[in-house]
Amino acid sequence: MNSNVYExxxxxxxxxxxxxxxxxxxxxxxxxELTTVTKEVFLNSNTEFINSLMKHVVEERDEIGSDLxxxxxxxxxxxxxxxxxxxxxxxxxxxxxxxxxxEKEDIDYVMDTFEEFxxxxxxxxxxxxxxxxxxxxxxxxxxxxxxxxxxxPLIPVFEHIxxxxxxxxxxxxxxxxxxxxxxDGVIENRSQVVLIDITGVxxxxxxxxxxxxxxxxxxxxxxxxxxxxxxxxxxxxTIVNLxxxxxxxPTRSTLLKGVExxxxxxxxxxxxxx
Length: 274
Hints:
By secondary structure, the chain is α/β, with parallel strands linked by helices. It has eleven helices and five strands, in the order αααααααββαβαβαβα. It has helices at 3-11, 13-30, 32-35, 39-58, 66-77, 82-103, 107-150, 172-189, 206-221, 233-242, 255-265; strands spanning 155-158, 161-167, 193-200, 225-229, 251-252. It has a five-stranded mixed beta sheet, with helices on both faces. Strand 1 (155-158) and strand 2 form a beta hairpin.
């Protein structure tokens, strides 16, 4: 514990907290995401925040304490902006440094205390940035995995006929998942024909076409056939301009036409009951 910082913080605790609360109330009025929070809830959160900050600096911590970490997690979970935390730290730093400077005339005392307090807040900033970055990475990783799992489903629509609708950009990682889902789904559903629908793929370049051709070839090797559907005029023009060879890969402009072709291949047809 740094005795100088502890002394200044404890002697001026009430004035520091009051000044901090007032400035944070002004910040609340300017932050749209916090205007819906009642003043009572906001003040209670501020009290918990400032108490944790005071505890952090007087105990001279280098890492986020469990109390600050729990507080930060809760603010994120309920949708409060990260700027609330960073603003609170900035206000606390300014008030604390101003208090230290006005506390005593001993320049050595002031400079030593000033440096200790400033370094303590720097450590806290670094710890919070590191923690929030890791938390963000974990969240993105989980979301990305969930999206990948849902981004390439093989859907059986008729007996021996399945559809794989593709939406969004296809990169190497996603292409690998498409291949795995395609082959597993063909075997599981005993599909004779698979319609790969690229209506929702915004851009078809050489790499995307290569991945799709590879998938079709893999399906052919296990005894089924692929039909590429959703060829919009601009996609057709791009394929031609890039010189992509789809001669061994049947294509149709719409999913409906693809289904009609798949029914013919599997010796099926749809008849009206009227």
